[in-house]
Amino acid sequence: SDQDKLDVCFSYGNYPWGPGEVARYNSTNTFVLSVAMTNFLKSKEGPDTDIWDMVLDEVYKPIGIQHAPIMRTHEPDGSRGIPIFGYGLYPTVDDVAKVAALFHSGGEHEGQQLLHAGKLAEALYQTNVTGLTTGDSNEYGDATYHMSFWSTPHRTAAGDLFLIPYMSGFGGNHVALMPNGMTAFRFADAHIYGVDSMVRVAEGIRPWQE
Fold first, then answer.
1. Which end of the chain is flanked by fewer CB atoms within 10 Å, N or C?
2. CA 209 to mean position of chain CA atoms
3. How far apart are the first and last CA of the chain?
4. pLDDT (tens digit, 9 = 90+) per residue, 93-104?
């Protein structure tokens, strides 16, 4: 249940560093955020509102996604439960393409701004905010994490350095958003992580410059 999960989340002790100083990936944080957003929405729209229904109605359905199953908590009263958000979304290939296209367009679809353009640009490493280092790196520098997007550094043949944003799912599912407007994705369950090979292929197909 949501309370069972929150009890586990709040059982963690305090780290010696403050917020925004060290990257520690833990899905408990995302679940706490899910509960907080759920409660905030209910305080504004009423007790029967659902955070995932809002996402479907305001973002997914306008771009052509009518059904998007997501894992929820199991509540003793039989209610729908809280979306986990840290994991458990089951998109189709078509869903991934539509969401990626929305990201590439700055959150705008058919003249309607569905996502906050400034926050999306920050999440996609298009501002001077580069996130926190994760401990991974390649020959071009350190990988980072910010606002639920991972990044990998890549230097183009022309010498320009980019942080390539990507989404990473359990088992090795990846969706990478290239600066040239291309999207590369791989669905797998072999626990092979990283998108560097897809980034190199994308640049080879359509080179980009800063």
1. C
2. 25
3. 47
4. 999 999 999 999
Residue 97 contacts residue 67 (beta carbons within 8 Å): no
Which residues, in sequence order, are CB contacts of 148 under 8 Å at separation 6+?
A: 30, 123, 167
Predicted confidence (pLDDT) per residue in 34-51, tens digit: 999 999 999 999 999 999
Tokens read off for 71:
């894992």
For the beta sheet containing 183-186, the strands, ordered from the edge strand earlier in sequence to the opposite edge, are: 132-138, 141-146, 149-155, 161-169, 173-177, 183-186
Residues 194, 152 contacting (CB under 8 angstroms): yes
- CA gap 92, 101 in Å, rounded: 14
**Closest CA relative to residue 35, chosen from 73, 67, 68:** 73
DSSP 174: E
Q: How many CB atoms lie within 10 A of CB 176?
A: 25
Q: DSSP 3-state assignment of 141?
A: strand
Q: Say whether 209 sits in a helix, a strand or coil.
A: coil
Provide the whole-model pTM.
0.93
Buried b (16+ CB within 10 A) or exposed e, 181-206: ebbbbeeeeeeeebbbebbeebbeee
